[in-house]
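Bit of a strange request maybe. I'm writing a small parser for C-alpha coordinate strings and I need a real example to test against, not something I typed by hand. Could someone generate the C-alpha coordinates for this chain?
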Amino acid sequence: LRGSKSFTAALPGETERNGHGLAYKSVSVGHLEAPPLSPSRLSLGRASSTATSTAAPEQGRPRDYLVLAIFSCFCPVWPINVVALVFSIMSRNSGQQGDMDGARRLGRMARLLSIVSIILGTIIIVLYISLSVRGNISF
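Reply from user aminoacidic:
Good idea to test on real output. This should exercise your parser:
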Protein backbone atom coordinates (compact mmCIF):
# COMPACT_ATOMS: atom_id res chain seq x y z
CA LEU A 1 0.00 0.00 0.00
CA ARG A 2 1.14 3.54 -0.74
CA GLY A 3 1.17 6.21 1.88
CA SER A 4 -0.80 9.33 1.15
CA LYS A 5 0.82 12.74 1.03
CA SER A 6 -2.38 14.47 2.11
CA PHE A 7 -3.32 15.47 5.61
CA THR A 8 -6.19 17.10 7.38
CA ALA A 9 -5.65 20.05 9.67
CA ALA A 10 -7.83 22.19 11.81
CA LEU A 11 -7.31 25.78 10.79
CA PRO A 12 -8.30 28.43 13.31
CA GLY A 13 -10.81 30.85 11.94
CA GLU A 14 -11.39 28.74 8.80
CA THR A 15 -15.11 28.49 9.51
CA GLU A 16 -15.47 32.25 9.26
CA ARG A 17 -13.41 32.50 6.06
CA ASN A 18 -14.94 29.78 3.90
CA GLY A 19 -18.51 30.11 5.13
CA HIS A 20 -19.20 26.36 5.03
CA GLY A 21 -18.94 25.74 8.74
CA LEU A 22 -16.26 23.09 8.26
CA ALA A 23 -13.60 23.01 10.94
CA TYR A 24 -11.12 20.91 8.94
CA LYS A 25 -9.50 21.34 5.57
CA SER A 26 -7.70 18.69 3.54
CA VAL A 27 -4.62 19.76 1.57
CA SER A 28 -1.70 18.06 -0.14
CA VAL A 29 1.86 18.48 1.10
CA GLY A 30 3.08 19.99 -2.18
CA HIS A 31 0.08 22.28 -2.54
CA LEU A 32 -0.11 24.30 0.65
CA GLU A 33 -1.97 27.53 0.19
CA ALA A 34 -0.04 30.77 0.13
CA PRO A 35 -1.52 34.22 0.45
CA PRO A 36 -2.44 35.61 -2.96
CA LEU A 37 0.02 38.01 -4.49
CA SER A 38 -1.04 41.53 -5.26
CA PRO A 39 -1.66 42.34 -8.95
CA SER A 40 1.45 44.51 -9.06
CA ARG A 41 3.64 41.64 -7.88
CA LEU A 42 2.09 39.31 -10.40
CA SER A 43 2.90 41.67 -13.24
CA LEU A 44 6.45 42.22 -12.01
CA GLY A 45 7.01 38.49 -11.56
CA ARG A 46 6.27 37.65 -15.17
CA ALA A 47 9.29 37.81 -17.47
CA SER A 48 7.40 38.25 -20.71
CA SER A 49 3.87 38.42 -21.97
CA THR A 50 2.32 37.45 -25.26
CA ALA A 51 2.05 41.09 -26.33
CA THR A 52 5.75 41.79 -25.89
CA SER A 53 6.96 38.46 -27.23
CA THR A 54 5.00 38.73 -30.47
CA ALA A 55 5.80 42.41 -31.02
CA ALA A 56 9.56 42.12 -30.54
CA PRO A 57 11.24 39.06 -32.05
CA GLU A 58 14.18 37.46 -30.26
CA GLN A 59 17.41 38.94 -31.55
CA GLY A 60 20.02 37.13 -29.47
CA ARG A 61 22.66 38.64 -27.25
CA PRO A 62 23.71 42.23 -27.90
CA ARG A 63 27.34 42.90 -28.71
CA ASP A 64 29.64 43.95 -25.90
CA TYR A 65 32.58 45.16 -28.08
CA LEU A 66 35.14 43.61 -25.74
CA VAL A 67 37.75 43.07 -28.50
CA LEU A 68 37.43 46.70 -29.61
CA ALA A 69 37.77 47.89 -26.01
CA ILE A 70 40.88 45.75 -25.48
CA PHE A 71 42.36 47.06 -28.73
CA SER A 72 41.70 50.64 -27.60
CA CYS A 73 43.74 49.99 -24.44
CA PHE A 74 46.89 50.10 -26.61
CA CYS A 75 46.22 53.75 -27.45
CA PRO A 76 47.75 56.44 -25.22
CA VAL A 77 44.42 57.79 -23.96
CA TRP A 78 44.28 55.74 -20.79
CA PRO A 79 41.38 57.20 -18.84
CA ILE A 80 38.98 56.88 -21.75
CA ASN A 81 39.96 53.40 -22.90
CA VAL A 82 39.91 51.96 -19.37
CA VAL A 83 36.38 53.28 -18.94
CA ALA A 84 35.46 51.72 -22.32
CA LEU A 85 36.81 48.39 -21.09
CA VAL A 86 34.76 48.66 -17.89
CA PHE A 87 31.59 49.46 -19.86
CA SER A 88 32.27 46.50 -22.14
CA ILE A 89 32.62 44.12 -19.20
CA MET A 90 29.47 45.56 -17.61
CA SER A 91 27.65 45.01 -20.91
CA ARG A 92 28.74 41.38 -21.00
CA ASN A 93 27.60 40.84 -17.40
CA SER A 94 24.22 42.47 -18.08
CA GLY A 95 23.72 40.26 -21.11
CA GLN A 96 24.49 37.14 -19.12
CA GLN A 97 22.01 38.16 -16.44
CA GLY A 98 19.27 38.68 -19.02
CA ASP A 99 19.10 42.48 -19.05
CA MET A 100 19.24 42.90 -22.83
CA ASP A 101 18.33 46.61 -22.84
CA GLY A 102 21.04 47.43 -20.32
CA ALA A 103 23.56 45.28 -22.17
CA ARG A 104 22.72 47.03 -25.44
CA ARG A 105 23.04 50.48 -23.85
CA LEU A 106 26.33 49.67 -22.12
CA GLY A 107 27.67 48.06 -25.30
CA ARG A 108 26.93 51.20 -27.31
CA MET A 109 28.72 53.30 -24.71
CA ALA A 110 31.73 50.94 -24.78
CA ARG A 111 31.82 51.16 -28.57
CA LEU A 112 31.64 54.97 -28.51
CA LEU A 113 34.38 55.32 -25.91
CA SER A 114 36.58 52.78 -27.71
CA ILE A 115 36.26 54.62 -31.03
CA VAL A 116 36.98 57.97 -29.36
CA SER A 117 40.01 56.46 -27.65
CA ILE A 118 41.33 54.98 -30.91
CA ILE A 119 40.84 58.24 -32.82
CA LEU A 120 42.45 60.39 -30.11
CA GLY A 121 45.25 57.85 -29.68
CA THR A 122 45.95 57.87 -33.41
CA ILE A 123 46.03 61.68 -33.42
CA ILE A 124 48.43 61.74 -30.46
CA ILE A 125 50.74 59.14 -32.07
CA VAL A 126 50.76 60.96 -35.42
CA LEU A 127 51.48 64.30 -33.73
CA TYR A 128 54.27 62.79 -31.64
CA ILE A 129 55.91 61.14 -34.66
CA SER A 130 55.61 64.22 -36.87
CA LEU A 131 56.98 66.54 -34.18
CA SER A 132 59.82 64.20 -33.25
CA VAL A 133 60.86 63.80 -36.92
CA ARG A 134 61.00 67.57 -37.34
CA GLY A 135 63.12 67.82 -34.23
CA ASN A 136 60.80 70.17 -32.39
CA ILE A 137 60.11 67.75 -29.56
CA SER A 138 62.44 65.62 -27.51
CA PHE A 139 61.44 63.28 -24.72
